[in-house]
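Worked problem 6 (solution included).
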Amino acid sequence: MAITRTEINLKEFSHIKIGPESWVWSVDNSLEILDNPTFVVDKVILGNCSKLLLPNKLEEAFLNVDHEPVIEHSEGLVHVSSGTRLSDLLQYAMEEGLGGLDFMAGIPGTLGGLVWMNGGAFGRHVWNQIYQIRAITSTGEVIWLKPGDVDAEYRNSHLDKLGVKFVVDAFLYYKLQDKQDVRSQILSNIEYRKRRHPVEYPSLGSTFKNSKEYKAWELLTEVGLAGYRIGDAMFSTKHANFIINLGNATREDVLGLIKLGQARVYNRFGIWLEPEIVIL
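Solution. The predicted structure is:
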């Protein structure tokens, strides 16, 4: 296992441009961790930092973003290392004509992060696409899990309840389709997200979870928070469930908006908004 430790500025790496200088561990691809599964047991696991609000100080972090991602397909299953960026997986899907993965289009994370939080879009979630995953537990044991083993729900896989510490890789279903059709659907989904989301600013995507009864952005707009800012953090006027960084926002600015949003919506509607982002 060729593991390296590098000092990086996580502020530049984070998708909301908030984070500390930190020494982080990394490997070329997540499958290398199988050579020493206990390595990750005492580490803070980071992915592409697209849904993580990082702390002001961070030590012993493992940055699971593959420099040499593993993506291979055969007989209806595509095998993907967890540190693979979704953009790389979708590029592969377009080149090979793999249908069924287009719901990931425009999500700026890694496969491991998507699996951990049961992420998705367009009414679909990754655990509906999974055949099985390989994971490492908090005691360093390597295990295999299928959807029937996991109590996945909207934006939460509950893998931690099964003792999982780290997702190594996953096998997902696909259907062979015309390459141009796959490309068109993926690009269409990306354009849809660009039109509706403030992608021109750093953010962590949707701040709060939706439910069947409400959409968080509508509630935040109703209580007058679209365009409201604390420091350089602001609820977007384009999509109020996005907190954007106007330049020099801090962790405290973002936390202030989260607390304010929860309080105003609860006082008006009696609904407590649950964060979708992960606050470390």
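Discussion: The chain has a mean pLDDT of 96.
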